[in-house]
Amino acid sequence: MNAPLFKQMLKTNMKGISNYAFGSAFYILLMFWLYPGMAANTDALNDLLKSMPEGVVNAFNIQGGFGSMEAFISGEYYGLILPILLSIFSLMVSTALLARLVDQGSMAYLLSTPTTRRHVATTQAAVLAVGLLLIMLVTTASGFLGNAWFIGDKFEFDGTRFIRLNLVAWMLFTAVGGISFLVSAVMNDEKKALGTSGTIVFGMFGLDMVAKVSDSVQWLKFVSIFSLYRPGEIAAGGGSPAAASIVLMLIGAACFIAGVIAFSRRDLPL
């Protein structure tokens, strides 16, 4: 890795990272602020869930109901808003870090310095990984802050489950980031790279939702990394967060490594 390049690229992308981090913090604080009002109607809301088709409940990750704070945010935030938010971040930043530089000709200036393609690609991968880590750290810290501000001892909140929820979410977006980074590493055109990685990531997200809705197409979950991400089950104390985290981490690491190797070996239009 090239340390000066890492500092410069992290500085260049810090505004975007900060925007997503503060956006995530705002949404999760909003969830904590809303929960006391929702908790007064927990029984009615849970009865409503029971009347809904099981597939719909599973698709929106609200299996845990509204009996606890972490169950509430697992459906309202971690089930839909956060996956969309950080998927967009991963796609945009990974494309900007490699494909955009090649497309605009800026990569030629980087490679004219005493550094190798592998060092450049490894550095860009590290920038994306650190950006995702910072966003998840801010999100986790905001959750505990929201609990201290708005919940306190009034309602149940399991901090351990909340940390597990954020850990699996981080590993999920490490995998998403790795996939989008690999696509960016093998393409020269920024728009094509963004479109291809977007199709893959949001295609898998859609397939996972469809698999949850209907038992007849449950097999679709086997082609989606999002099937390993079950925030409702984690919030309820179930699932296999450790196993899911390991698999997602391995997928992400494999894609990042493959992206670095592919970028270092392919012909570039410099």
Short description:
The chain is mostly helical and 270 residues long. The chain has helices at 3-39, 42-51, 54-59, 69-76, 81-97, 99-104, 106-111, 117-151, 159-186, 190-213, 231-235, 241-265.
Radius of gyration from the CA trace? 20 Å
What is the residue-mean pLDDT, rounded to a whole number? Answer: 83
H-E string: HHHHHHHHHHHH
Number of helices: 12
Q: What is the percent of helical residues?
A: over 70%
Largest sheet: none
Q: Identify the overall geometry.
A: globular
Give structural notes:
The chain is an all-alpha fold and 270 residues long. The protein is 77% helix and 0% strand. It has twelve helices and no strands. The protein has helices spanning 3-39, 42-51, 54-59, 69-76, 81-97, 99-104, 106-111, 117-151, 159-186, 190-213, 231-235, 241-265. Helix 1 packs parallel to helix 8. It is globular, with a radius of gyration of 20 Å. The chain starts with a helix and ends in a 5-residue tail after the last helix. The mean pLDDT is 83.
List keywords for this structure.
77% helix; 270 residues; mainly alpha
Secondary structure: elements and pairs:
Blueprint: H1 3-39, H2 42-51, H3 54-59, H4 69-76, H5 81-97, H6 99-104, H7 106-111, H8 117-151, H9 159-186, H10 190-213, H11 231-235, H12 241-265
